Amino acid sequence: MAERHRLLLESPRLTEEFSPSRTTTSSTTSGYILGITSLSSFYAASASAPFNVIDIVDKTTLRGVQTLPGHENGTTSLHTVQNMAGSAKECLISSGKDGSVKVWDERSNSHSIKMTNLGKRQALLCCDVSPDGLTVAAGTELQGDDASILYWDPRQPATPVRTHSSTHSDDITTLSLAASRDPTTNTNILLSGSTDGLISTSNADEDDEDEAVIQVGNWGCSVSQVGWIPGASSGSAGIWAASDMETFSTWQSERRTWVTDYLITAHSSNTSNPKLGVFTGSNEGDIALLSNMNTSVPDAPWCLHKLWTHGHVGVVRALVWDEQNETLVTGGEDGKLNIWPIKPVDPDSNESDDEDEEDGAMEVDPKSRKREYEEEGSRKGKKARRQ
Fold first, then answer.
1. CA 249, chain centre distance (Å)
2. Is residue 298 one of the residues assigned to a domain?
3. Containing H/E element for 190?
């Protein structure tokens, strides 16, 4: 039998959608969609260079509402936050290679807040916001010997309030602030990943960067995405990470890796089921939802829950699970923004019908789940997700 961490079980309740509920294309017509986020009534999608715009589309009709200018040289991340600068309001925020983090005002089709590093323009590759909206963090591209995490108080956006330059030694590709303050220290905790292969947690409120780092894990490969797993119990994985080598891992005291064609992203929230859903893609444009059957067991197998096929041609680069509306939103190198139905996975679907896993487990042949690449109207894209 194959090694257990390479075993993919097929759920007895596996479902497959053969076409999206609705579809539209980017306003650029030829740009890739690299980022998607969900607002109350709209979806926002960022386009690749040289366009760099952010399209706002109606959730119900997918009709374009407006197009924001994005960032010069490239829009690198896109988020929805519920608090900003001490005000409880929904905001769209983005980072860019122009060295700024922008909070967008859809009424004026421009930004209402622009955070910069006065006198020093470094490309920003990622950003995130603390739950109270009073701390904004961004990670820079390596410039010379420095790759920094910049922190702003958005009420004073002209210059960062602190800079941590010793956490990572290469491009800082991904950041995630914890959804609540640390109960022991009452501080904001930042999770960061970098091209240097390190996954770190640090105190985002600490001015002395030598005292800021809390934990460091060395994955040994370039890290492209990281995130928290809410409600993780003691001994189970509390952090997930993805690499530029299209591998995925969960972290606590142990780590394990599962290899696929390419990883799109992972989704985890207090209400999601599975608690940690891993979305992977095929080079033909199909999408799968996987989950690990027990993240506290290093060699636990993975389970295939759902498939979404024939909606994209080529690599899928962005995905959002809109739990409230039971909707999956996907965007890819074909420039399409697709809406798919998605319901929470039945908790029992992680269980094998046969108690003897060696007899009952089924190893899915990846070839049987692949469709022929549609050459007509397709664009050959590279497998790597990040520019």
1. 14
2. no
3. strand 189-194
**CATH number for the domain harbouring residue 44:** 2.130.10.10
For the chain, how many structural domains are there in total?
1
**Does residue 205 belong to any structural domain of this protein?**
yes
Residue 183 pLDDT: 86
Residue with tokens 């990470």: 241
Residue 318 within a domain:
no
Provide the pLDDT for residue 3. Answer: 33
Q: Judge whether residue 150 has pLDDT over 80.
A: yes
CA 362 vs CA 100, 138, 195, 348: distances in Å: 49, 43, 36, 17
For residue 202, being part of any structural domain is answered with yes
With bands split at pLDDT 50, 70 and 90, how would you rate the model's confidence at 246?
confident
The mean pLDDT value of the chain amounts to 86
- How many CB atoms sit inside 10 A of residue 348's CB? 10
Residues present in the chain in total: 387
pLDDT band at 79 (very low <50, low <70, confident <90, very high): very high
Specify the pTM. 0.78
Q: Closest Cα to residue 11, out of 368, 364, 365?
A: 364
Q: pLDDT value at position 357?
A: 36
Gap between the Cα atoms of 79 and 128, Å rounded: 7
Three-state secondary structure call for residue 350: helix
Integer Cα distance of 311 and 317 in angstroms: 13
Q: What is the three-state SS of 218-286?
A: ECCCCEEEEEECCCCCCCCCCEEEEECCCEEEEECCCEEEEECCEEEEEECCCCCCCCCEEEEECCCCC
- CA atoms of 30 and 155, how far apart (whole Å): 37
Cis peptide before 274 (omega within 30 of 0): yes
Domain hosting 152: range is 35-270
Specify whether the CB–CB gap between 306 and 321 falls below 8 A. Answer: no
Asked if the model's pLDDT at residue 363 lies above 50, the reply is no
d(CA 63, CA 356): 50
